[in-house]
Amino acid sequence: MSSVRLGDLGATTPRRRTTAQSSSQAAQVAGPWVRRLVIALVLVALLAVGGVFLYSSSIFSIESVHVNGAAHLTDKEVSDLAAVPSGTTLLRVDTAGIAARLESNAWVEHASVTRQFPSTLNLNVTERTIAAVVAVSSGAQGTQDWAIASDGTWLMMIPDKDSAEAASISPQVYTDAASALRITDVPYGVKPEVGAKCSDESVTNALKVVSSLTTDLVGQVTAVSATDTANTLLTLDNGIQIAFGTADNARDKERVCLQLMADHEGKISYINVRIPERPTWRALS
Q: Region labeled Disordered — which residues (predicted)?
């Protein structure tokens, strides 16, 4: 049988009270955090349920589609390319898929799709421009005009302006084609394909030559004869013809041409700068 001193009995009571007080204080401190956690979880659950409801409902249905940036494509052509599913909503629409379909067209260099709540979808396109019109041999029919971009992408065959097919084409195509550089005399057998890159060296060299020139000369070039790369011939708006050859050393060739035309202003009809170190020129007869 054990014994306890009276003093010890009195000493145990405060320790028990201290432990109880600590537990009570811990509960008081933890209480607000627990409540906040519960509230946060409830809010997350409500948001999740609300998100699922909005995504699956017809709220924010697409009622209008706006086309921005199109000039050579009509709004109808862009809308047809986008193929926005009927009845879809701004929340469910596949913007990446629509952008990819738009960029599958040769005219479209870049496309993006943005939502404008509550009911509008914006189709934003950046178009390629016509760098030149290439007269491509079509056998017994003569030649056909093809629009080509500066990166060598074949854009389209340009039908006769008075044809029935022209009625569905944007007027901007004909406006730009009329003022564009013309590339003629391309080798027989060049077969353009819409959206494909030009693989003919004569045509690509002609594009490189023109893109390499500065504004001092390029603005005067109206046509390029591209029988082959070595015999690329530029025709200026004043009638002077320049045997330019390949695009190699284009700036040196341009500098020689500008200097000769300045030194013999109004007297030159032909310049040969295929070898820029040994240029030749012919005077007007």
A: 1-24
- Domain hosting residue 80, numbered range: 64-127
Please report the sign of the dihedral spanned by the C-alpha atoms of residue 81, residue 86, residue 91, residue 97: negative
Provide the number of structural domains found in the chain: 2
pTM of the full predicted structure? 0.78
**Which structure tokens are listed for 43?**
């809010």
The predicted pLDDT at position 23 comes to: 57
The stretches in the chain having pLDDT less than 70 are 1-31, 38, 41-42, 44-58, 140-141
Q: How many CB atoms lie within 10 A of CB 54?
A: 13
Residues 113 and 208 reside in one and the same domain: no
Specify whether 140 is located in the same domain as 175. Answer: yes
- How far is it, in rounded angstroms, from Cα 285 to Cα 280? 16
Count Cβ atoms within 10 A of the Cβ of residue 92 and give its class: 0-12 exposed, 13-18 middle, 19 or more buried: middle
Dihedral pair phi/psi, residue 18, rounded to 5°: -65, -40
Residue 199: count other Cβ atoms within 10 Å of its Cβ.
12
Residue that has been written with the tokens 């569905």 in this structure:
168
56-84 confidence digits (pLDDT tens): 556 889 999 999 999 999 999 999 999 99
CA 89, CA 54: separation in Å to the nearest integer?
10
CA dist 192 and 131 (Å) reads: 15
